[in-house]
Design goal:
With about 190 residues, the chain is mainly α. About 70% of the residues lie in helices and about 0% in strands.
């Protein structure tokens, strides 16, 4: 989490610089410098991702497993009220922690793609090759931590997992039905 916060903060420094000069005309060399700094930060994210890739995938697989496990146990009858309170407290804590970690890691991608709005708002008289390269770089390059490149941690992934879990809930299956027809006794 601290690594994600640090990387996102570095991108936010570039964004602050763009906010300060958003209404001022800029020359091509200024855009080249900003683009160069952005490229260096993107390469830093890739380097960090290569070092932390195993930890990232284990963390997210572990969290996903426990959330699914708790969802499967959601309909079990609990003997005492205190068990009920503990179950819901631990479940909500787990979901909140997982969402928090996910959003903190996704803030890297949010901060890295933020400058595209400054690029698109530039007047045509300021348009130059460096500005076009910077816009292409931001819009086409995936700048985020990943799980072995199987998935990139972005807000859209979190919302996609949330939408999938709402449309395919585990309680569509009824695990407590006892079938009297199977096995067939002859």
């Amino acid at each position: 989490m601290i690594t994600s916060i640090a990387l996102a903060t570095r991108f936010k420094q570039i964004n602050q610089r763009l906010e300060e000069i958003k209404n001022e005309p800029m020359v091509e060399s200024s855009w080249a410098e900003i683009r160069h700094h952005h490229v260096l930060l993107c390469e830093l994210v890739e380097t960090v991702d290569n070092y932390l890739v195993v930890i990232i995938i284990l963390c997210y697989a572990n969290d996903l497993y426990y959330v699914c496990f708790e969802l499967l146990n959601i309909f079990n009858k609990l003997p005492h009220f205190i068990n009920f309170i503990y179950f819901w407290y631990s479940f909500l804590y787990l979901v909140g922690r997982t969402t928090g970690v996910f959003l903190i890691a996704a803030s890297i991608n949010d901060a890295a793609t933020y400058p595209i709005k400054f690029v698109r708002r530039r007047h045509t008289t300021e348009w130059c090759a460096e500005l076009e390269r910077f816009g292409d770089q931001i819009s086409t390059r995936a700048v985020a931590l990943s799980g072995l490149k199987f998935f990139f941690i972005t807000r859209s992934l979190l919302f996609g997992v949330n939408a999938y879990s709402r449309n395919h809930p585990p309680f569509h299956c009824n695990f407590n039905i006892v079938s009297t027809r199977w096995p067939v006794q002859l």
